[in-house]
Design a protein that fits this description.
Number of helices: 9
Radius of gyration: 19 Å
Number of strands: 11
Strand order of the largest sheet: 1-8-3-6
Amino acid sequence: MTGMFRQAAWLARSLGRGDLAPFTDDDIRELAESIGLRTVEAGTPLLEQGKPVAFIAVIQRGDVGLYYRSGLRRVMLQRLHEGDVLGDVPYFCRTGSPFSARSLSEVDLLHLEDEVLRRLLYTRPAVTQRFLYSLATRLERMQRRLLEITQRDLRGQVATLLLNETEEQPGEIHLPQSTLAELLGATRPSVNQVLKGFEREGLVRLSYRRLEVVDPDGLRRAIS
């Protein structure tokens, strides 16, 4: 199996459940001939707010931040991880990107350009169904996350965010507290106060620009 065939198989898995739209070997082979692999350094702009998007990319390694700028103020909206899709909503809607995107670390991207995407979507029904499933799944997850966050006090909101970022497992989050505060629309001092409380309870460990979740069960109890 060639390297690009393996990349295409990974991309197919990242786009959703194979039982809903199984890929044939021909689907994977054409995908392998169509995708590009791009590696970018931390801090590289990937999307610009208000500008059209002519590609869709899936993050194979690294983290990408989504930002919204209003005047001189820039707010981080979301952090994308391995397996997340970048650019599909504005691409399919044919609108300018509602946000800017920038790599937070070195990032490997598997990307499909406009001409390639059009051909695949018109000729490979499984590819189209996987993209639809991917979009619907992320929309449902975003709606659920908004409901979870807005219906809780700040302590519950912080706990929910930490569990989302670590997929409810022990793990590290390499983000400054100011960024965590931006993701919640809260102030840094108030988020810091909650995190210090979690640290005293043994739920997290704090250090410079890094946070370690050590007791996910404790964080889940903090939400209820």
